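> example.struct
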C-alpha cells in the first residue's frame, strides 16, 4: 500500500504526565501544562469552558452532542464548574514550555517561567500586558509593564501588536449570566 513506502521518523517519545486540577464551584482560571490530542473541554466535567484565540472566543457547553475544542498547553481558559471537583488530566509534557502567540490578536496565556516579559526570548516583545485574576467569581485586570516580572502559572492577556484594539476582557454575555 502507499503507507508502506512512507518513512516515519520519531526523534523522541513524549514523556507521559498527569496534572491535577481543583475546580471550585463557579468560575476558574486555568492554563494546562500538559498536552494531549485527546484533551478537550469535555475532560473538565464542567458546565462551560471558554477559550480565546485569534478568531475570538470559543465556547464549549457541556451538553450531550455538543462538540468540544482542543485544549492547548499554556493557553488560558475560563472554566465554569457546577460544583467543587478535583480531576486528573492525562497527557504528556509539551515540546515547548511557553505559549505560541498570535501577532494580530490578543493572547490569553500562561508561562512556566518567573521572569520579566522582556526576558522571555520572543521575536517581538509584548507591547501591552494585563494580568487576570479571579476572586469570588469576579475577574480583575492589572496592567503590567514589559519589565515587570510575571508570576508562573498566572494568566495574562498580552499582544505583540500595538495596533490591536483594547483587551477582550471576559467572554461577553454568557459569563455574566452564569455568575
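> example.seq
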Amino acid at each position: 500500500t502507499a503507507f508502506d513506502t512512507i518513512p516515519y521518523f520519531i526523534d523522541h517519545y513524549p514523556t507521559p504526565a498527569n496534572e491535577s486540577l481543583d475546580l471550585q464551584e463557579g468560575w476558574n482560571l486555568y492554563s494546562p501544562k500538559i498536552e494531549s490530542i485527546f484533551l478537550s473541554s469535555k475532560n473538565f466535567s464542567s458546565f462551560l469552558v471558554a477559550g480565546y484565540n485569534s478568531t475570538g472566543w470559543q465556547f464549549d457547553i457541556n451538553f450531550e452532542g455538543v462538540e468540544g475544542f482542543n485544549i492547548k498547553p499554556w493557553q488560558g481558559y475560563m472554566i465554569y464548574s457546577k460544583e467543587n471537583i478535583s480531576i486528573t488530566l492525562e497527557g504528556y509534557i509539551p515540546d515547548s514550555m511557553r505559549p505560541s502567540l498570535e501577532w494580530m490578536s490578543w493572547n490569553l496565556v500562561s508561562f512556566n517561567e518567573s521572569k520579566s516579559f522582556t526576558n522571555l526570548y520572543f521575536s517581538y516583545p509584548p507591547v501591552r500586558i494585563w494580568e487576570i485574576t479571579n476572586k469570588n467569581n469576579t475577574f480583575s485586570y492589572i496592567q503590567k509593564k514589559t519589565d515587570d516580572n510575571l508570576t508562573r502559572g498566572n494568566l495574562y492577556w498580552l499582544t505583540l501588536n500595538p495596533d490591536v484594539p483594547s483587551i477582550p476582557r471576559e467572554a461577553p454575555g454568557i459569563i455574566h449570566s452564569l455568575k
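> remarks
Strands lie at 16-23, 26-30, 48-53, 56-61, 77-81, 85-92, 107-109, 128-135, 138-144, 155-159.
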